[in-house]
Design a protein that fits this description.
- The chain is mainly α.
- The protein is 80% helix and 0% strand.
- It contains 17 helices and no strands.
- Helix 6 runs parallel beside helix 11.
- The longest helix is centred in the N-terminal third of the chain and has 29 residues.
Length: 309
Amino acid sequence: MLVYFLGFLGGIALFMYGMQLMGDGLQKAAGAKLQKILEAMTGVLAMGILLGAVVTAVLQASGATTVMTVGLVNAGLLTLKQGFGIIMGANVGTTMTAQLIAFKLSNYITVLLFIGFLMQLLAKRARGKYLGQVILGFGILMLGMDMMGKAVLPLRDYPGFVDFIGHFSSNPLLGIFIGTVMTVLIQSSSATIGILIAMASQGLIPLEGAIPVLLGDNIGTCITAVLASLRANLTARRVAVAHVMFNVIGSIIFVVFMQWFVHIVMLVSPEGDIARQIANAHSAFNIINTLLFMPFVDPFICSTPPPSP
């Protein structure tokens, strides 16, 4: 059992390292213009959401976008409304990682690793080396996913673990709590989604049980903005509180309409492809939640309570 546990931890480490390599490579390839783009954004809410989504997709880390946003709000370069728009977009952009890892590329891991390494070694231009780093990072990420999947496979034979996972479907609050704690501890929502997909792909958790964990994952990722705002001014702290409330309120809404949401995800996802279903559920939650909040952003921002000093 210890061997499988260590294999699981090793898989998480490779997954997160691969994700970091991807993000660094994409950021270098895009140039050091991301913060300037955010600073130059207009006051149009939709533009802020779009920029937040694009920057997060490039960085491959919503935490980096939220920290950057809190810093810009704290410096007075963005308003509370603009900052909240970017953070809503960041929630959408971070779902790109789940969509990527839902592709069944286990048979091509070694090819990705070889191509990425070769490009880094032989490319003459910096951009080619950065692209090689992205491909290499994605290969390492997929290798970590494969290791996690193999490590959790024996858990199917443990009735106690299977029963515990089954409670997520009948008790969504437990799933939300588990997802929140996991993300707070790992400090990466994408890693939590990766673990969830790895377990679901081995038949350990159904879609109905995965969705509450996924909702908790979105709540847990707010910890990054909260920590970044602790020494910031009142407006920046309001952005962090708005981020928490955005995900908590959205999660409550989706728990109430869980049956309909599961049905929608099943309709737009390939039958039997649990990895894609989870990735689509992650994207659908953040997109629908953003669309629900957009008409009410002004009153929502005004009602956001100031955090305790």
